[in-house]
Amino acid sequence: MSSSETGLPDGWEVRRSNTKNLPYYFHASTKDSRWEPPAGTDSDKLKTYMAQHHSSKGVAPAAFAATEGKIRCAHLLVKHRDSRRPASWREPNITRTKEEARDLIQIYQGQIRAYEEGAPNDDPKSLSELATTESDCSSARKGGDLGFFGQGDMQKEFEQAAFALKKGEVSDIVETASGIHLIQRLVRHEHASI
């Protein structure tokens, strides 16, 4: 894998963690490893590479098994410079304002609504499709899928919105200390991934 293909700076490569079954960034010479891309990464190239090689459609690890009282959701997160941790796999240093983040998520919300309603739109997409390339959360690798969680597992605002959703429903815009989210409550599938 060449750095020109991944968009990573020279010496960096994408590897997969055996314990978490998630991609991470590794520098062979320095042995540096990290979840977030290193400075100097070409975000557009990395996005394309990750969508092609590290999307995990069809993979349903044990952590995604249903448990009593828990729900399963996916989300799309847009961080801003005032987020709790203004960095992501897409951008090592997020500088957009909260207003810019809100504008972006409103565009994504329109694309998702058009997809859900089958309405005409320039670029209708599912939340999962958008999360894979646009979400600032590492769950992007799984189409935004957070697996099952219960009361008290997530930030309060996120949890309240998630538990209020019907299966398959997408939330309105939700703000937390992490950034700005769109959340979709997933329908349980016993023998298939989402």
Automatic annotation (TrEMBL):
EC number: 5.2.1.8
Disordered: annotated span: 117-138
Domain of life: Eukaryota
Catalytic activity: [protein]-peptidylproline (omega=180) = [protein]-peptidylproline (omega=0)
BP-aspect Gene Ontology terms: positive regulation of transcription initiation by RNA polymerase II
Classification via InterPro entries: PPIase_dom_sf, PPIase_Pin1, PPIase_PpiC, WW_dom, WW_dom_sf
Transmembrane portions of the chain: none
GO cellular component, one term: cytosol
Comp. bias intervals (Polar residues): 129-138
Ranges for domain PpiC: 68-187
EC supergroup of this enzyme: isomerase
The protein's name in its UniProt record: Peptidyl-prolyl cis-trans isomerase
Native source species: Neocucurbitaria cava
Gene: pin1
